[in-house]
Amino acid sequence: MSMLFYGSRRLSISRSFYFYRTISSSSPSTPFPPPPTVSSRRVVVTGLGMVTPLGCGVDKTWKNLIEGKCGVRGLCLEDLKMSAFDKETQLSTFDQLSSKVAAIVPTGTNPGEFNQDIWLNSKDNRSIARFIAYALCAADEALKDSNWFPTEQEDKERTGVSIGGGTGSISDILDSAQLICEKRLRRLSPFFIPRILINMASGHVSMKYGLQGPNHAAVTACATGAHSIGDAVRMIQFGDADVMVAGGTESSIDALSIAGFCRSRALSTKYNSTPQEASRPFDTGRDGFVIGEGSGVLVLEEFEHAKNRGAKVYAEVRGYGMSGDAYHITQPPSDGRGAILAMTHAIRQSGLHPSEVDYINAHATSTSLGKIHFTGDAIEATAIKTMFFDPAISSALAFSSTKGAVGHLLGAAGAVEAIFAVLAIQHGIAPLTLNLTKPDPLFSDGFMPLTASKEMPIRVAMSNSFGFGGTNASLLFSSTGSD
């Protein structure tokens, strides 16, 4: 029988009508009692799934990351996704792009490659754009990893999805706009709108697995993945669901997206001939971020629910902090107060002390002040030093930016990097910052991003994400015992 949840009680639909009539029959002059107290519930990670420029799958990506591999390569004409345009227009567009590097998901049928025939090209996938396909692939791996495929109606109703994205399918918009220029609007696909809507990533995952709990999609630029995970945590804590499939996805490597970021002078332009050196967080040679694509999805679960079914537990989500810079559309305040607020809220919620944080996966995108950007690497580093002063300057705190290896995955970045933080706890390895050869002058011997992957005990890890509009999010994960 279908059940409704009110506080800690389960009510069948038939009983709920009686309940409604009972509570609504009180006298109009009688004040309402306060709402039921909501007790926060513990939330753990029981499944992981990834599609990244380092490979398709968690094991492939993590192995390549730790070994110092790089997923950035030079752009080619086909990467612009301009098949609806004539060759001359394609070549002209390519020539005008000041940045010609990107972190692109490897495709093919080999292990560790994204198989487009499965996720994108079949006749059943006409309503699925690439960013949706990445989310479906990552969610499938995460659910298999968690071994959670609910079949009972009650379990389906208690399992939800929270997967966001940054921009949707800009290439579909470009192709469809071309039909207007050619006066061929009658050829517009009836699937145009469903292919570009951000929430359709969550929608398709929900439909594929019959998940009838919360169906949610955050859109907060490059903080999207972190906010989607954090919001899902809250849904479990407040009793809206027992299990949430949560993360972020993005596929913005196309002519218009790259051109837009080029015009805003956000992308790296100095390393077109040496693409694997282009993404260099915290390095004095950084000159802009490298646009990337992919998806990261986690299965989040109420702790007792996970324990009762014998699920593997990677880590516990201990804190979720949010803040707004209230300062500028792209530039954070120089004191990093927005980042400090987000990290402070996450730690305060966790009940832990800043000195107990062992590793931070920084948002640092390889951008510097003087360019329009998502956030300055130096400002985030200053915020980390301010927030974690003693452990930071004594080298007790390890931190790095993994964007040197995977580029900036925009709406997927926060989710992929949250998974990196979870894996750091599981494996006891803090991943390196690639291409950090000449660190920013603000660093010293005691306060320095990792330049090589480091084996170390990691019980608590944080992941930072910041986005356009001054939106900030910090996720805090910890190891968990069996209690």
UniProtKB/TrEMBL annotation:
Q: In which pathway does it act?
A: Lipid metabolism; fatty acid biosynthesis
Q: Which InterPro entries match?
A: 3-oxoacyl-ACP_synth-2 (IPR017568), Beta-ketoacyl_synthase (IPR000794), Ketoacyl_synth_AS (IPR018201), Ketoacyl_synth_C (IPR014031), Ketoacyl_synth_N (IPR014030), PKS_Beta-ketoAc_synthase_dom (IPR020841), Thiolase-like (IPR016039)
A GO molecular function annotation here is: 3-oxoacyl-[acyl-carrier-protein] synthase activity
Q: An example of a Gene Ontology BP annotation on this entry? A: fatty acid biosynthetic process
Q: Could you list the residue ranges forming a coiled coil in this record? A: none
Q: Which UniProt keywords apply?
A: Acyltransferase, Fatty acid biosynthesis, Fatty acid metabolism, Lipid biosynthesis, Lipid metabolism, Transferase
Q: What's its EC?
A: 2.3.1.41
Query: What GO cellular component entries does it have?
Result: mitochondrion
Q: Kindly indicate whether the keyword Phosphoprotein belongs to this entry.
A: no
- Top EC category: transferase
Q: Which residues form the Ketosynthase family 3 (KS3) domain?
A: 40-479
In the record, the note on similarity to other proteins reads: Belongs to the thiolase-like superfamily. Beta-ketoacyl-ACP synthases family.
What is the official name of this protein in its record? Answer: 3-oxoacyl-[acyl-carrier-protein] synthase, mitochondrial
Lineage, opening ranks: Eukaryota, Viridiplantae, Streptophyta, Embryophyta, Tracheophyta
